[in-house]
Amino acid sequence: MARRLKDAGVMHSTTALSKRPFSTRRAGELLQSWREMVQPSSLPADAAAGLSVACVALPLNVALATAAGLPASVGLVSGVVAGIIGGLLSGSRYQVTGPEAALLPLAAAIVAAHGAAGLAIATVLAGAMQVALGLVRAGRFARLIPRPVVMGFTVGIGLLLLNTQLPRLFAVEDTHANAVALVLRRTWGEHVGWLGVAAGALTALAMVALPRVHKRIPAVLVGLTIGTVLMVSLGAGYDAVGALPRSLPMPTLPSFEGVHLAGLLPAAFGLALLASLGSLLATSSLDALTGARTHSDLDQDLIAQGLANIAAGVFGGFPVMGAIVRASASIQAGARTRAASVLHALWLFVAMALLAPLVARIPIAALTAILLVVGVRLLNLEGLVAMWNQSKSTLGVVLVTALGIAVFNVFAGIGAGLALASILYVRRHGALRLEVQRVTDASRLQPGLHVPPAEAPHTPEALDLMVARVDGPILFINHLKLYDLVDGPPWAKLVVIDLSRVPLVDAAGVATLQYLAEFLAVRGSHLALVKVPPHLETVLEPLTQHLLEKRMHGSLEGALLGAGLMRPAPLEEPVIHPAHAYGAVHGGGLTLEGQAR
User: Fold this and answer.
1) Is the peptide bond before 489 cis (omega within 30 degrees of 0)?
2) Are 65 and 71 within 8 A, CB to CB?
3) Which positions ≥6 away from 256 have C-beta within 8 Å?
4) Distances (CA, A) of 69 to 107, 319, 465
5) Can you spell out the DSSP letters for 420-465?
6) With contact defined as beta carbons under 8 Å apart, do 58 and 355 qualify?
7) Residue 486: φ, ψ to 5°
8) What are phi and psi of 476, to 5 degrees?
9) Rounded CA gap, 374 and 157, in Å?
10) For residues 90 and 301, is the Cβ–Cβ distance under 8 A?
11) Which of 587, 32, 527, 102 lies closest to 297, judged by CA?
């Protein structure tokens, strides 16, 4: 009994919680997760996980900032400030926020067009847009994006990284803007800094080989150390990170002076969409990675990432988003609460304060090698090969998305991928099948049209009828198939279309049905729609004025009666026996009397 009361109490509290306002429930969940951060049982594991993530994030933040044409300190400051805010407020307790490779192409383009101040303004504007998207609860729509488009997005970013970073590795980015130019022009060999290439190769080799020896080895840091030692010991002069501040700068609102705001707004909007999409996809992936019973709060994640971007812009930093690579590294390192994400940012601040002289000597070639390895991993070659063996059409969506991103831009690639995925879905699930029969005599009416035998004798001997049963949705991609019904001359006097198996009719389908009705009417024929599902009646209502008897019919027999092709069965008067008549009149009274007793 006590157990039952306890269960009832739990059920009551859960029900009460679900009835609380959305904002109140969100605040309660955040407070609960903040309390878990300071639990002595989980804090050591979170501190260790945060240190592991910081080892991955520090060189990557520096590499992304320098690749975009910004000082290395910008990447570190963004990682610290945004990492704390994102860690505290993210929709997933395991999410790690910071500069990400997916944002590099757009960030670099903004810096080239509007300068560092333009990027700071765009980052603040993008953050405000993300907060607005979270407040209107737009996060749920991220789950509707097809997985092949998501995979194409990551592959496209990998291609962009390879295309832009290879010239930097060879130190010929001033004369060769991308890897394509590097391949097409054969004049770059004399200007290559081969020592930097060697340092980058050693860094990349360490990143690839050391994790196979032991997963806990900080492969990126070891690789950077090897590359830096090589350049310092053998290189008379090389491009390095340079001097770094040992503290965070004072937050200031970005200056709009000299910035063309009208030209910057589209870039800020694109940055907001890209950062939102990447963060939401990363958070959704974390749910699958951790096997969470409940989905993370994607709307809360949008608000958190927006506030993190506003903070990064105020501190003059690089735009940020949720990073699936760092978050998965945190989980694998034993993270238990939000404290791991927050502590990773604090570890970055400690490194900036204590290790600034060492970080300043890291060669640019080694940082470029890190981005190249990240780019190759984003290509997911094993996944592409497996997809080739499983579904070539799905692989086509991935490649169209990726190539659109690499050749044009992120939004063109995603748009092309969504369009192709939609077409393939319609072709796969929207195939239109027609069962057509032309009937010219009554003897074929019953077996061909499934008319009950009792009504067949009342059908005229001479018929000119076409009956079509449609199976599948009538959409813009398949509606032309219905034109087969008016292939003539001669044309049937009555064309009956059975829509009982049609789940959907779009605007193109409605227009086609109207054309068929008008085409037949001009030639003295009629179109009848029968067995229309209830959910399609409103859509097809405008067609009724063009149909037989200006209405839709419930059955084939009704359409035949309306067209005069079937005579109604004669009504027969029922023969009632006198005894039955007496029982019909008096039976009710007897029953009631019996019930009264």
Assistant:
1) yes
2) yes
3) 121
4) 9, 14, 74
5) HHHHHHHHHH---EEEEEEEEEGGGHHHHHT--TTTGGGS-SEEEE
6) no
7) -120, 30
8) -60, -25
9) 10
10) yes
11) 32
Inter-CA distances, 51 with 45, 214, 278, 328, 359, Å:
10, 17, 24, 14, 17
In angstroms, rounded to a whole number, what is the distance separating the alpha carbons of residues 93 and 534? 46
- Residue 437's φ and ψ, nearest 5 degrees, are -140, 130
Residue 338: φ, ψ to 5°:
-65, -20
Q: Fill in the amino acid letter for 458.
A: H
- Dihedral of alpha carbons 326, 327, 328, 329, sign: positive
Nearest-10 Cα torsion for 285, 288, 290, 294: 110
Residues 153 and 280: their CA atoms lie apart, in Å, by 13
Which letter does DSSP use for residue 565 in this model?
A: S
- H/E segment holding residue 376: helix 364-379
pTM score over 0.70: no
3-state class of 98 per DSSP?
strand
pLDDT tens track of the chain, all 597 residues? 444 333 434 333 333 444 455 567 677 788 888 988 888 888 888 888 888 788 778 888 888 898 888 988 899 999 999 999 999 999 888 899 999 888 888 899 999 988 899 999 999 999 999 999 999 988 877 777 788 887 888 788 788 888 878 877 776 655 555 666 666 666 555 667 777 788 888 888 988 888 888 877 777 778 888 888 888 887 666 777 777 778 888 888 887 777 788 888 988 998 998 899 888 878 877 776 666 656 788 899 999 999 999 999 999 879 999 987 788 778 877 788 999 999 999 999 998 888 888 878 888 888 788 878 878 887 888 888 888 888 888 899 999 999 998 888 777 888 899 999 888 877 776 678 889 988 876 555 544 444 444 444 444 445 678 899 999 888 877 888 898 888 877 888 899 999 999 988 988 889 899 999 999 988 888 999 999 999 999 989 988 888 988 889 888 888 888 877 766 655 555 555 554 444 444 444 433 333 333
The greatest distance separating any two alpha carbons of the chain, rounded to the nearest whole angstrom, comes to 124
Burial call 119-148: b when 16+ CB within 10 Å, e when fewer: bbbbbbbbbbbbbebbeeebbeebeebbeb
CA distance 54 to 298: 25
Radius of gyration of the chain (CA): 35
Return d(Cα 467, Cα 456) in angstroms, integer: 16
